[in-house]
Design a protein that fits this description.
- The chain is about 20% helix and about 45% strand.
- Strand 2 and strand 3 form a beta hairpin.
- It has a single domain, classed as Thiol Ester Dehydrase, Chain A, CATH 3.10.129.
- It is built from 3 helices and 7 strands.
- It starts with a strand and ends with a strand.
- The chain has about 150 residues and is of the alpha+beta class.
- It has a 7-stranded antiparallel sheet.
Length: about 150
């Protein structure tokens, strides 16, 4: 499948509103790369108090968006029995750079790539853009674990 909408992403991830941040995943290359869309709006929960007079998407939620997009890319590429009754947890962020503030109303475009996997541990890199301007980039790792 080359594109996943929010409902299809919801079927792959345990995240629910308001923490399901990724709206679409497209240009999917199975277990390799994808592009994600995060709609940053004036009524998004995270800008209500961060900061009321100068709203900005928190950097930590940009990293969370990277993680969700990567988890959806991976789950979409695996056999359902591999990720069913499992969770994906962020293990570490090696590098994260926030180059420009992400302010509403905008579409945050995430370009993500799986750069390595060993068993249940995956390593990814990503870049975030608004109107082709780089806003952030990161390298992170995650693991697939059994639900308790």
């Amino acid at each position: 499948m080359d594109k996943l909408n929010k409902d299809q992403i919801r079927d792959l991830l345990p995240h629910r509103e308001p923490m399901l941040l990724v709206d679409d995943l497209y240009d999917i290359k199975k277990l390799q790369s994808a592009t994600a869309l995060v709609k940053v709006r004036k009524d998004s929960f995270f800008v209500q108090g961060h900061f009321p007079d100068e709203p900005v998407m928190p950097g930590v939620l940009i990293v969370e968006s990277f993680g969700q997009a990567a988890a959806a890319l991976t789950a979409n590429g695996l056999d359902k029995s591999t990720y069913e009754n499992k969770l994906v947890f962020l293990m570490g962020v090696e590098k994260a750079r926030f180059r420009n503030p992400v302010v509403p109303d905008c579409d945050l475009i995430l370009k993500i790539e799986a750069i390595r996997s060993h068993g249940r541990v995956w390593k990814y890199k990503g870049e975030a853009f608004v109107n082709d301007k780089k806003m952030a980039d990161a390298i992170w790792s995650a693991t697939i674990v059994d639900k308790k």
